[in-house]
Amino acid sequence: MKRIVVAVLAACLLFSATLSDAAKGLKAGDVDPNTGKVIKYWAAPMDPTYIRNEPGQSPMGMDLVPVYQEVGGEKLPTSTIKIDPVTVQNMGVRTATVKRMELKKSIRALGTVTYDETRIHAVNLKFDGWIEKLHVDFVGERVTKGQALFEIYSPELFTAQEEYILAQSQVRTLAANAYPSVRENATRLLRAARQRLKYWDLEDAQIRQLEKKGEVRKNLTIYSPANGVVIKKDALAGHYVKAGMHQYEIADLSRVWVDVEVYEYELPFIKKDMPAGMELSYLPGRRFEGNVLFIYPFLNPKTRTVRPPDFVGFCHDTSS
Predict the structure, then answer these.
(1) pTM for the full model?
(2) In what order do the strands lie in the sheet containing 120-124?
(3) In the prediction, which pLDDT does 13 show?
(4) DSSP H helical segments within the chain, as ranges?
(5) Which residues contact 10 (CB under 8 A, 6 or more apart)?
(6) pLDDT for 29-43, tens place per residue?
(7) Superfamily designation of domain 255-317
(8) By C-alpha distance, which of 134, 126, 128 is closest to 230?
């Protein structure tokens, strides 16, 4: 019995040695007698990138394994990790051709469109009075520069108009006076009366009309200082107002700001004046371009976000 076991063991060792010797003599392109397949190359089991055209050992001291050439595709080394196509689809894996291009980082964040604070105009008065009539009477109404907003009666303004008319009449009366100093005093008084009206924001056209007709107007019309939309209105018909009280706020929407909050780890990538883009969910396919106007120098302690950037200038549609 012992002789039979020894004989079988010897036969196995002899057969293994024969296969090993046969494998050692093979090279890339030869047919492996054990598998009947063509050997494409030899690769390291732990490093598939280590490839040789003949058997040997890897830098780690491991025997190289053959990679066979098969019909219908290349057989990868046994150490290669394979992922089922269904799993790849579920993971959302995407592949692309390697290209040489500039390294860029895109930061996406939600923002809120708001007014450009440098384009908000306040309408107020420099005198007291009563609002007699409103021409623009609700928030959201679009107005143009020079459009009538409301009419106001002011005793102070009424008196200032009378003084201007009297000064103008005096200049005409004293035009033929023989004393230059008298004519000069009358002229200075007229200039002072006119300047007072201008300080109270009467327009040149209103002053010229006063000069032409020579009649004092009870009500003064207040006009819009800019194109835009009414975003605040405190004016009411019959309301008594004091000097300095805001009656309207008008925002020019030809350019807007976008308030955005980004996380603190993204802040180093944001710089002033860098380009920025905006897309709106209710305008699919359209993109608006602008620049970073300002970055706030503090964090929100609750969310650890920065309210950076006011992106300004989103008035240029680049979708077309």
Answers:
(1) 0.59
(2) 120-124, 246-251, 228-233, 142-143
(3) 37
(4) 2-24, 85-91, 155-173, 180-199, 204-213
(5) none
(6) 777 777 777 888 888
(7) Efflux pump adaptor protein, beta barrel domain (2.40.30.170)
(8) 134
CA distances from 222 to 51, 139, 142, 209, 255 (A): 87, 17, 16, 15, 25
Determine the Cα–Cα distance for residues 34 and 235; give it in Å rounded to an integer: 99
Q: CA–CA separation, 307 vs 316, rounded Å?
A: 23
User: Model confidence at 74, in pLDDT bands (50, 70, 90)?
Assistant: low
User: What phi-psi label fits residue 269: left (phi over 0), alpha (psi between -120 and 50 degrees) or beta?
Assistant: alpha
Q: DSSP character for 173?
A: H
CATH class of residue range 115-251: mainly beta
Nearest Cα residue to 34 out of 66, 75, 71: 66
Helix (H) or strand (E) holding 312: strand 310-317
Question: Looking at residues 94-106, what average pLDDT do you find?
Answer: 86
* 157 contact partners, CB below 8 Å, separation of at least 6: 127, 129, 200, 220
Measured in whole angstroms, the distance separating CA 16 from the mean position of its chain's CA atoms is 71
Q: Which two tokens stand for residue 249?
A: 């706020």
Please give the Cα distance from 110 to 260 (Å, whole number): 6
For residues 186 and 167, the answer to whether their CB atoms sit within 8 Å is: yes
**Domain ranges within the chain, ordered by starting residue:** 24-77, 115-251, 255-317
| Contacts with 291 (C-beta within 8 Å, 6 or more apart), sequence order | 273, 274, 275, 276, 311, 312, 313
Rounded to the nearest 10°, the torsion over CA 116, 119, 124, 126 is: 130
Q: Is 244 left (phi over 0), alpha (psi -120 to 50) or beta?
A: left
In DSSP notation, 206-244 reads: HHHHHHHH----SEEEEE-SSSEEEEEE---TT-EE-TT
